[in-house]
Specification:
Length: about 230
Amino acid sequence: MAQKEQIKIAELFTLSETIAKEYLEGFTYPWEALAGIHDLILELGAKLPAELYDHPSEDVWIAKSAKVFDSAHIGGACIIGENTEVRQCAFIRGDALVGNNCVIGNSAELKNVIIFNNCEVPHYNYVGDSILGFHAHMGAGSITSNVKADRMNIVVKGEQEYVTGRRKIGAILGDWVEVGCNAVLNPGTVVGQRSQIYPTTCVRGVIKSDTIVKNTGEQIAKREKA
């Protein structure tokens, strides 16, 4: 299978798997969508059907079918989708659009994110200023680092350099990406669909689709299944 650099929204995501579909279609690159997540949630939340969603506090909407543990903190603006589970001591700081059938795990922290349906952030994760695609999975302890040490604006580095004009960008994970335990995704990391990051790996830049990234830094193409 040929590896392809996936950097555009249309290449990374199945847009039908998020209620942010129409919003995301208005951009070319995923980091362009990060600035408007707060207002997007307020707009979408006001339209959610009352028979399916509770509105327990200002700017927070939680699906009636979702399971939220009492010890979880959910700050606005936030939407928690249907059949999603928010586990013990999860810390949703705000501006989090979480899809259906997701897991936000114990002690996980979210801030300024779009999380597609069927995505799992299950154990001790930090996800900030990021977009996680359909069926993306973050292993225990894996995090997105969203600010450079020098506090300068982030440049996404792939086959070319993309000047973002943003100081904060975490990671962009395409559909079906697997991130191993205790991996660190450095600011502006973009991972193409179906790629796999080994545990304890430190990743930077654009990872092509269908790629395995080893903790030595080596990148190899995934084998096609027989």
